[in-house]
Amino acid sequence: MARSDEKATHFIYEKKEDIEDLYMLLIKKAEEAFASSYSPYSNFEVGAAALLENGEIISGSNQENAAYPSGLCAERVSLFQAGARFPNVKIIRLAVVAKRRGEKELRSGGPCGMCRQVMLEYEQKQSSPIEIIFKIDNENWIRTKTAASLLPFSFGKDNL
Ligand SMILES: [Zn+2]
Fold first, then answer.
1. What's the 9 CA to ligand 1 centre distance in angstroms?
2. Which of 4, 78, 89, 147 is a plausible cystine mate for 60, CB 3.0–4.6 Å?
3. 83, 122, 145, 148, 154 from 87: Cα distances, Å
4. What's the pTM?
């Protein structure tokens, strides 16, 4: 069973088996994206999958580079594809998974700060929430109701 916190900004799942099928579908798509991870430096594979309102699922994986900052996280590979290919279609939810190469066990897949900033921007652009699903520790998974809840006291387009 999922339990929500007091403010109900998110749900916590105490084990993967508790996650509902509609979310598991997206998690599986994110896991499939491990296969395209280009991560020769970190050996840390990340997969992401975004479900759009039109039913499209846009997956992405982390893409590293010898000049480290030139690489890009799986979440932004996925979201930027969605933004470029379907600029007027809302993003419903995003699943993120991570693991070390050669291991089967998933690691915590909490998005980095820059990815959270990008999620927030798309959420504001489309004026509707984006759910974010990822593993937060050895057992627990989290599903936030919004991207904004992952980035409190944020800077966004309304600040300009
Ligand atoms: Zn990131």
1. 21
2. 78
3. 5, 10, 22, 20, 23
4. 0.93
